[in-house]
Amino acid sequence: MVSSFATELLEIKSKEPSLHVLVIPGNPGIAAFYKDFVEALYENLGGQASVTAVGHISHSQKDSEHGRLFSMHEQIDHKVDFIEQELQHSERSIVLVNFHLQFTATSLHSSCSMLTGNQVGHSIGAYIGLEVFKRLQNKIKMFVGLYPFLKLNKNSVTQSAIGYIARSSLLSKGVSLLASFIGSLQPSIIRGIVRRFLGTSWSVTAVDVACCHLLKYHTMRNVLFMAMTEFQKLTEEPDWMFVRAKEDKIAFLFGVDDHWGPLSHLEEISKRAPGVTLSVETEGHTHGYCCNEPGSFWVADYVANFIKTQKRH
């Protein structure tokens, strides 16, 4: 429980950690999607860092909050509360790693005390991570945004379509009912639908996670409600003053053809905050890299190398 809300964690804990890597998912914010990534990152850091993926409230198999809808701002508060509650006795740095996946994890090991850390975020998780970084600057050592979604892309048809659905309560309920209906079918039929329409290249793990967690009425309603609040907030410019102030502690990884984080956004960051570490992944992985093993392994290697480089400075 974090601030009285049921919270799903996927974590591997080091016996003698030198830092703690906190992974913040995008939307959907289902921690189990990052299983392969979390395991690979732990191994690439030589077992010297604890790694924890923190799921969003009500983006889970069980409707613990009885249909309540949570905004992006409330999900940001939830991640701040997690760090303050679970890592309050921390003496080592936190690395934030953040993600985004637009369309119950269990503990693998188990002592979250005595750590500062690094933050990693994917897609909208990158925006969430920056907000967490701003609030907890004394606890966060570095921040990595993966395939970041930091502002709206007016040229994206997909974003326009999702925004249109998310703004309509009627359409959101309809899509959520459809997802719930699909989730009630025979397991083999559900898997076939998920693989056909969501993830032709997804791993077995990712397909199972979608079947068990995503195809729930309460989950899809929260995914769309959070998307609505994301799109409202991301009409604003990022806090460039903060990014410049912390540019030596921030890195972003972009994809070549990613409408959530187009290369034009990378170019803008390079002009606004030239000290930020910017990279472009050219191996052919997608925005939803965490849903297949090759993507998870490649991105985990990138994050681990950045963390190791920063630790030497």
UniProtKB/TrEMBL annotation:
Q: What do the Gene Ontology cellular component annotations say?
A: lipid droplet
GO MF annotations in UniProt: hydrolase activity
Where in or outside the cell? Lipid droplet
Q: Which family does it belong to?
A: Belongs to the AB hydrolase superfamily. LDAH family.
Which superkingdom?
Answer: Eukaryota
| Sorted UniProt keywords | Hydrolase, Lipid droplet
Q: Say yes or no: keyword Hydrolase present.
A: yes
Q: Does the keyword Ribosomal protein apply?
A: no
PANTHER family assigned to the protein according to its UniProt record, in alphabetical order: LIPASE (PTHR13390), LIPID DROPLET-ASSOCIATED HYDROLASE (PTHR13390:SF0)
Query: What name goes with this protein?
Result: Lipid droplet-associated hydrolase
